[in-house]
Design a protein that fits this description.
1 helix; 77 residues; mainly beta; DUF7734 domain-containing protein; five-stranded antiparallel beta sheet
Length: 77
Amino acid sequence: MSISIADDQDKIAVFKGFSSSLMQSTAFDPDVPVLPDEATTISIDRIGSPYNPESPRYIQQGISWEAMEALLLEVGI
């Protein structure tokens, strides 16, 4: 997912409930949030696994937070 925090942007990978910044360092402690409360979601991409950074398999690209939230509610998450 692409996010904005104040004037900075970041990309975050989320997999099975764990998240990691792809552009900044991520705390080793999984209890330290990667996504701060003041972050704004720019877009979300759904990628199939196994993940290959050389050739990602996109399921959907450029999803809004509202559309992703509806999808998560639809599947009971």
